[in-house]
TrEMBL record:
<dbReference type="InterPro" id="IPR042063">
    <property type="entry name" value="Ubi_acti_E1_SCCH"/>
</dbReference>
<dbReference type="Pfam" id="PF00899">
    <property type="entry name" value="ThiF"/>
</dbReference>
<dbReference type="Pfam" id="PF10585">
    <property type="entry name" value="UBA_E1_SCCH"/>
</dbReference>
<dbReference type="GO" id="GO:0005737">
    <property type="term" value="C:cytoplasm"/>
</dbReference>
<keyword id="KW-0833">Ubl conjugation pathway</keyword>
<dbReference type="GO" id="GO:0005634">
    <property type="term" value="C:nucleus"/>
</dbReference>
<keyword id="KW-0067">ATP-binding</keyword>
<dbReference type="Pfam" id="PF09358">
    <property type="entry name" value="E1_UFD"/>
</dbReference>
<comment type="similarity">
    <text>Belongs to the ubiquitin-activating E1 family.</text>
</comment>
<dbReference type="GO" id="GO:0006511">
    <property type="term" value="P:ubiquitin-dependent protein catabolic process"/>
</dbReference>
<keyword id="KW-0436">Ligase</keyword>
<dbReference type="InterPro" id="IPR038252">
    <property type="entry name" value="UBA_E1_C_sf"/>
</dbReference>
<dbReference type="InterPro" id="IPR000594">
    <property type="entry name" value="ThiF_NAD_FAD-bd"/>
</dbReference>
<dbReference type="InterPro" id="IPR018965">
    <property type="entry name" value="Ub-activating_enz_E1_C"/>
</dbReference>
<dbReference type="InterPro" id="IPR019572">
    <property type="entry name" value="UBA_E1_SCCH"/>
</dbReference>
<feature type="domain" description="Ubiquitin-activating enzyme E1 C-terminal">
    <location>
        <begin position="586"/>
        <end position="735"/>
    </location>
</feature>
<dbReference type="GO" id="GO:0005524">
    <property type="term" value="F:ATP binding"/>
</dbReference>
Length: 740
């Protein structure tokens, strides 16, 4: 091949130098077909076909060239048989990557989080490549979702008979049909703080790496945090229509997923959602918010109270008051949260408010909610903000985009009105496990029950506060703040007013989690009816059920072509991880098949916290010229990244010994530290809190168990306040205290 190239150069009189190493690599790989490259070009070609058929987006008018020589090893240094096939299905791959890498691939212990569109394509590629097909290999896959009909158009491991089955189990069965040697542990546990006993330290420590196949940011961030903590590589990817991206997260060498901030999505202000909507998106957002608030959040809090009883009260109280009844430093904030929680609990458990036991009561509750949302609140708004109202500048208050609303009079013959009643009543019955409940959609059944419901007359209040979104006069915010003492007193009174658990006769509540894909569960029926009634209030164009589902369900368009392409690139990065791990070889990806645009980028290094001088202006208004300088010191002195840790592994020290360790090891002083236990940060020691000094002779684990007696872990992570000898604050990486 090299000889032919030199002859061609001489014949064509080319001036370029021949890269003989490149020619040799090309000669050795040209006859091989690799699954990741097929996946990439299949996605590109598939999208071009879609463009031709739909006449949408810009076609490719030039050649598409892609090389990934970064995945290759050094042929000259390999033994004679390294790249020779052995007569199995992986020979083409061995010819390109070598026997050694194929063996590593087969013995991989990998964790794939999610098994939807991305997961199915990754699974297929893994089976073709021989990932976890060796004696020591294992892919652990988890997805708590089940297969819906809408998944079948882009999740090709699933068929009609799989609808309703677990995604991870069905995908595992399909993939084993492609490659019977692959070893898979299929699970249905969501990866979250609640399942850290399932995905424990031993599980994470035994992994070679993680690949995400998720569709939401919160889950991605959590998996990223776990990978950073345990020092595991993460291959992250995502799609949105024709757009896709890949990010390689390599311990100590690249920025982690959470280290980047996506542009903030522009959301409508609260006042627009609640009082001044001007498009259907506002109406649907409020409908979904009300669904979550009533049927998930409030119902969940009430359910916890029914299950825990006095323990629920004690848990709430412990966040506000410490030993001896003193209000904790963050007790006021906790009291505000407690008041909000208790309002929801009382809404669910007080007779005449939200407590229901029969279907008739569910219908009556739904009818009262209709009147509250679409009549009474509108009447109050119009009363407080009349049509001729002026704003602070003297201009008409009801100027575009604001729309002047009108109240709705309930009409049982209107299908949208009845749609709200039917959905709300069914959902309420599901939450309260009403005896003998069966889903009902027959409007005549509800009309009979509605005939018995009496709705009281509403009288607007002159004292009602309406959030208009206008800026308040300077100083008015301070005058309106509630006194901290009264907030704590309100929490104390509210806790005392909670009805006794025994008075509910064993009532069990079942909070609902929003599920957009099940059209029989009344979730989208409620949100769609709510949004369209709200739209009628404000003369906004209504939408049909499918449009409501797309908007409120926040459905991100997914294309099989994009998914195929992006997972191909993920698998190429996996090969690079196994081949050499050289950061220069890795490539992040930004791609848009519609344009078409494909851009590979060198991964960004992890940001480093270093010692620095920070300048601040104490009084920028009156003395903008005056600046103060503050020295920021780091430990270690040369700085640290998110991947670094300070590990205290000296056994179960006392609190005093832990403080002394900082002085003896690093010549700094630990002036305070706390540990997050549950939802609260528990102070173990604070030089300004005399009550914490009683902890000094106690073992660290014993202090922890005062707050969590069931704790069985081997370490925890104290948040420490550190000062050097010059009283400068010292920034440190996360601290891990091991006591076992």
């Amino acid at each position: 091949m090299v000889k032919l190239v030199h002859e061609a150069k001489k014949r064509t009189k080319m001036e370029e130098e021949v890269d003989e190493g490149l020619v040799k690599k090309f000669s050795r790989t040209a006859g091989a077909v690799l699954a990741p490259m097929c996946s990439i070009f299949g996605g590109i070609v598939g999208q071009e076909v879609a463009k031709a058929v739909s006449q949408k987006h810009h076609p490719v008018y030039q050649f598409v060239y892609l090389d990934t020589f970064e995945v290759l090893g050094e042929y000259e240094e390999a033994s004679g048989d390294e790249y020779k096939g052995v007569g199995n299905r992986y020979d083409a791959q061995v010819a390109v990557l070598g026997r050694t890498l194929q063996g590593k691939m087969g013995d991989l212990k990998y964790f794939m989080v999610g098994c939807g569109a991305l997961g199915c394509e990754l699974f297929k590629n893994f089976a073709m490549m021989g990932v976890a097909c060796g004696d020591k290999g294992m892919i652990t896959v988890t997805d708590d979702d089940v297969i819906e009909k809408s998944n079948l158009s882009r999740q090709f491991l699933f068929r009609n008979f799989n609808v309703g089955q677990s995604k991870s189990v069905a995908a595992t069965n399909a993939v084993k049909g492609m490659n019977g040697a692959i070893k898979i542990d299929a699970r249905q546990d969501r990866v979250s703080p609640a399942t850290e006993s399932v995905y424990d330290d031993a599980f994470w420590e035994g992994l070679d790496g993680v690949v995400n196949a998720l569709d939401n940011v919160k889950a991605r961030q959590y998996v990223d945090q776990r990978c950073v903590f345990f020092g595991k590589s993460l291959l992250e990817s995502g799609t949105m229509g024709t757009k896709c991206n890949v990010q390689c997260v390599i311990p100590h060498r690249t920025i982690n997923y959470g280290g980047r901030k996506d542009p903030e999505t522009k959301e409508a202000p609260e006042c627009a959602l609640h009082n001044f909507p001007h498009n259907i998106n506002h109406c649907l957002s409020l409908g979904r918010s009300e669904f979550v608030g009533m049927f998930e959040t409030q119902a969940g809090q009430a359910s916890q109270y029914l299950e825990k009883g006095d323990a629920f009260v004690s848990e709430m109280s412990s966040k506000i008051w410490g030993e001896g009844g003193a209000v904790l430093p963050d007790g006021t904030g906790a009291a505000k949260e407690t008041n909000e929680v208790l309002v929801g609990v009382m809404e669910c458990l007080v007779e005449g408010k939200g407590l229901v036991r029969t279907m008739d009561e569910c219908v009556a509750w739904a009818r009262s909610k209709f009147e509250e949302y679409f009549s009474n609140k509108i009447k109050q708004l119009v009363f407080s903000c009349p049509h001729d109202m002026k704003n602070a500048s003297g201009a008409p208050f009801w100027s575009p985009p604001k729309r002047f609303p009108s109240a709705i009079v309930f009409d049982a013959e209107d299908p949208v009105h009845m749609g709200f009643i039917i959905a709300a009543a069914n959902l309420r019955a599901q939450v309260y496990n009403v005896s003998g409940y069966k889903p009902v959609r027959d409007a005549s059944v509800f009309k009979a029950m509605l005939s018995k419901v009496k709705v009281g007359e509403f009288v607007p209040s002159r004292d009602a506060k309406i959030d208009t979104g206008e800026k308040k006069p300077e100083g008015e915010e301070d005058r309106m703040e509630v006194d901290e003492g009264s907030v704590v007193d309100q929490a104390k009174a509210a806790l005392g007013k909670l009805p006794k658990v025994g008075s509910f006769g064993g009532l069990k509540m079942s909070p609902l989690s929003f599920e957009k894909d099940d059209d029989s569960n009344f979730h989208m029926d409620f949100i769609s009816a709510f949004a369209n009634l709200r739209a009628r209030n404000y003369s906004i164009e209504e939408v049909d059920f499918l449009q409501a589902k797309l908007i409120a369900g926040r459905i991100i368009p997914a294309l099989a072509t994009t998914t195929s392409l992006v997972t191909g690139f993920v698998c190429l990065e996996l090969i690079k991880l196994l081949q050499h791990g050289n950061k220069a070889a890795f490539k992040d990806l930004q791609c848009n098949l519609a344009m078409p645009m494909l851009m590979q980028i060198d991964p960004e290094g992890p940001p480093k916290n270093v010692a620095r001088t920070v300048k601040t202006k104490p009084d920028p208004v009156n003395h903008p010229e005056y600046e103060e300088e503050e020295e920021v010191v780091t430990l270690p002195k040369d700085g640290f990244t998110v991947w670094d840790r300070i590990v205290v592994d000296k056994g179960d020290l006392t609190v005093q010994e832990f403080l002394d360790w900082w002085k003896s090891e690093h010549d700094v002083s630990c002036t305070a530290f706390a540990v997050k236990i549950g939802d609260a940060a528990r102070p173990f020691y604070n030089q300004f809190m005399s009550g914490t000094k009683a902890n000094l002779p106690l073992k660290m684990s014993d202090v922890y168990k005062k707050y969590d007696p069931a704790f069985t872990g081997k370490y925890f992570m104290p948040e420490c306040s550190i000062q050097d000898s010059d009283m400068n604050e010292v920034e440190t990486p996360h601290v891990v205290f091991k006591f076992k």
